[in-house]
């Protein structure tokens, strides 16, 4: 549990110095021992008071020798533990040694390491070893349990780091140790002011004499429930272990509240991300079922579509079929793309949160819908050909010429779109390729020729939909060309913006790919910026569960444009900011454990305290039950990908 080195006080003069090396004050062995015995005695009695025990000691060297005080002390930190049977009024040495042996065993079971001291030393009243034993207990049950939230440092270093963070920015305060940094009283005043500014006027404190300020801080601390373990002299000429003991009480008063708030935030964030993932997967599954049902209805309609042997019936059905292709079919094709994108977003969120990839049931996979679409398109093509047989008696060269050119153009445009959708090469190479695409598209003489052929066919009363090769309609080609040109321009602007953004941020290539795809998907009104609602959708797609008010405040914080929009650079900056604090599997488990009092199960009441009524009601339906509670460790483990 950290610093347990000098249980025996050296028989030389101890020089207390700050980390810079300048001595504070030389203190003799007896002076150090006296400070420790006085402070440690008060600390022991404070633990009895906290535990509701009226038992008290007056002298460490004399009142611990029968083992009773030690047993009572350790029981203060384990009130629910089994108290061994011991002699409560021992008078003979064997009885005292037996009590002391049981006390040492309790200390070891509590996780405190004991080196170089045994029951006989305590019985003999060896002051240095008695002080060493009490220090080991203080460190083991209090200081050693301290852990800095934002680092892996614990114990003495963790307490020192917490003090530094609490007092960062305070004038005339620079905490580097537990001796000289506290002599002026300003460090203690800043520590109190950082959590309770209503109790200490720090500006006034800067002008006070150290003695008066320290006394005032002692009094304020007592109002807060912190026992006065030290005297004025103990701070003016500080001894490290006694100061650490006293300052650790402030951590357990102020620091624990911060840790609990962080745990609550992490558990709430964990719940929100799980719920959002479940909502997204539910939306996906419902959407897939709806589209499969639509495919079944369309296929049934094609199979039962009998054509009467009349020109007008065929022409009417052909017109209806054309409306279907340009309206209903496109809507459902777009919906199919949305569902595929939704599944990709779910997987992106799973990876970002280190969760197992969601995999839908076999009957609801996108491949299943793709198979049904193949059947729909095949049935549609068969129906379309059947409808057109009344218009296929003769096809002249112009019709064949148009069909060939139109199909070439369609393939060219679709190939261009596919190339834009899957960019290759560096950003500079992509910019050069985009420029070539636009030049080739604008200078392609096949467009003018195909348009001319289409107009001639219409003039002749021949609809391009009636041609046997089923080429695309000229209007569709123009629409597709416009889409391609727009996509080229969007891609060009996006690549330029991305190059600028990546030059300014430290986002990795993998993160950039996720951000870029999400930005493209939702930047609909302006390809170079996001509105507030589009930004909110981006966060949800990336699996970042922020409350609406926090989304709005984040948007306003990073948006610098007059149009109140978020540029690509600003969006990347937001992502870099948000990704800085990610709750890992260990952090989520630790947060749950803090509410469960380190038990393996969490009760329903503790769950409500952690995440609130609504979240607790949901988690209680998905967490496995165990011994009258919920096995949160088992549940959290299934929500993360196992370490490889």
Structural features:
two-stranded antiparallel sheet, two-stranded antiparallel ribbon, 27 helices, disordered N terminus, 644 residues, mainly alpha, elongated, 6 strands
Account of the protein in words:
A two-stranded antiparallel sheet has the order 1-2. Strand 5 and strand 6 form a beta hairpin. The longest helix has 64 residues. By secondary structure, the protein is mainly alpha-helical. The N terminus is likely disordered. It is 65% helix and 3% strand. The protein is built from 27 helices and 6 strands.
What is the share of helical residues? 55-70%
In total, the number of strands is 6
Which parts are unreliable, with pLDDT below 50 for 5 consecutive residues or more? 1-24
Estimate the strand proportion: under 5%
Termini Cα gap = 30 Å
What structural class do helix, strand and pairing data support? mainly alpha
The main sheet comes to: 2 strands, antiparallel
Q: What is the topology, as strand order, of the major beta sheet?
A: 1-2
What is the 3D shape? elongated
Computed over alpha carbons, the radius of gyration is: 38 Å
What's the total helix number?
A: 27
The pLDDT mean sits at 82
What does this entry show, briefly?
The chain has helices at 29-50, 60-63, 68-76, 93-109, 119-123, 127-141, 155-167, 186-195, 202-206, 210-223, 232-236, 240-303, 311-326, 328-352, 366-388, 397-421, 427-443, 446-459, 474-504, 509-522, 532-541, 548-558, 568-578, 585-595, 604-611, 613-622, 632-638; strands spanning 14-17, 23-27, 529-530, 566-567, 625-626, 629-630.
């Amino acid at each position: 549990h950290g610093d347990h080195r000098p249980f025996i006080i050296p028989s030389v003069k101890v020089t207390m110095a700050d980390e810079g090396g300048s001595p504070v004050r030389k203190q003799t062995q007896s002076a150090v021992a006296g400070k420790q015995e006085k402070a440690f005695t008060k600390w022991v009695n404070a633990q009895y008071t906290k535990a509701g025990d009226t038992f008290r000691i007056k002298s460490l060297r004399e009142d611990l020798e029968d083992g009773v005080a030690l047993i009572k002390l350790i029981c203060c930190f384990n009130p629910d533990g089994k108290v061994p049977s011991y002699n409560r009024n021992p008078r003979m040495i064997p009885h005292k040694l037996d009590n002391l042996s049981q006390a040492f065993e309790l200390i070891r079971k509590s996780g405190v390491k004991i080196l170089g001291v045994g029951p006989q030393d305590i019985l003999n009243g060896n002051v240095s070893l008695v002080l060493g034993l009490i220090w080991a207990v203080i460190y083991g049950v209090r200081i050693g349990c301290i852990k800095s939230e934002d680092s892996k440092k614990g114990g003495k270093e963790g307490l020192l780091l917490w003090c530094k963070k609490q007092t960062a920015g305070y004038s005339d305060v620079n905490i580097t140790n537990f001796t000289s940094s506290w002599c002026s009283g300003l460090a203690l005043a800043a520590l109190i002011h950082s959590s309770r500014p209503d109790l200490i006027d720090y500006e006034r404190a800067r002008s006070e004499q150290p003695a008066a300020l320290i006394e005032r801080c002692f009094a304020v601390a007592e109002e807060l429930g912190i026992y006065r373990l030290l005297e004025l002299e103990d701070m003016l000429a500080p001894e490290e272990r006694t100061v650490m003991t006293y300052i650790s009480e402030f951590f357990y008063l102020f620091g624990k509240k911060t840790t609990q708030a962080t745990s609550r935030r992490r558990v709430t964030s964990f719940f929100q991300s799980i719920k959002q993932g479940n909502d997204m997967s539910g939306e996906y599954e419902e959407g897939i079922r709806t589209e499969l049902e639509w495919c079944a209805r369309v296929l049934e309609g094609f199979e039962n579509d009998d054509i009467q042997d009349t020109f007008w019936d065929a022409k009417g059905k052909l017109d209806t079929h054309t409306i279907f292709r340009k309206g209903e079919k496109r809507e459902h094709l777009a919906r199919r793309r949305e569902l595929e994108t939704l599944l990709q977003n779910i997987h992106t969120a799973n990876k970002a949160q280190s969760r197992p990839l969601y995999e839908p049931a076999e009957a609801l996979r996108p491949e299943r819908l793709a198979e049904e679409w193949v059947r729909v398109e095949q049935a549609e093509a068969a129906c379309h050909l059947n409808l057109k047989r009344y218009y296929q008696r003769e096809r002249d060269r112009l019709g064949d010429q148009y069909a060939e050119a139109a199909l070439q153009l369609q393939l060219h445009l679709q190939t261009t779109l596919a190339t834009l959708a899957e960019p290759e090469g560096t950003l500079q190479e992509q910019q050069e390729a985009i420029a070539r695409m636009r030049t080739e598209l604008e200078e392609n003489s096949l467009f003018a020729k195909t348009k001319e052929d289409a107009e001639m066919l219409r003039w002749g009363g021949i609809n391009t939909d009636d041609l046997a090769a089923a080429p695309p309609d000229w209007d569709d080609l123009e629409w597709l060309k416009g889409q391609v040109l727009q996509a080229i321009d969007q891609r060009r602007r996006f690549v330029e913006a991305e190059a600028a953004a990546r030059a300014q941020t430290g986002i990795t290539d993998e993160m950039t790919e996720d951000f870029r795809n999400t930005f493209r998907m939702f930047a609909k009104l302006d390809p170079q910026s996001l509105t507030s609602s589009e930004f909110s959708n981006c966060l949800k797609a990336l699996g970042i569960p922020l409350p609406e008010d926090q989304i709005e405040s984040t948007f306003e914080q990073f948006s610098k444009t007059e149009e109140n929009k978020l540029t690509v650079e600003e969006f990347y900056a937001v992502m870099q900011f948000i990704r800085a604090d990610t709750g890992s599997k260990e952090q989520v488990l630790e947060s749950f454990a803090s509410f469960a009092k380190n038990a393996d199960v969490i009760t329903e009441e503790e769950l409500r305290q952690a995440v609130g009524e609504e979240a607790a009601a949901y988690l209680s339906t998905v967490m496995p039950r165990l011994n009258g509670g919920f096995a949160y460790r088992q549940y959290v483990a299934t929500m993360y990908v196992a370490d490889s």
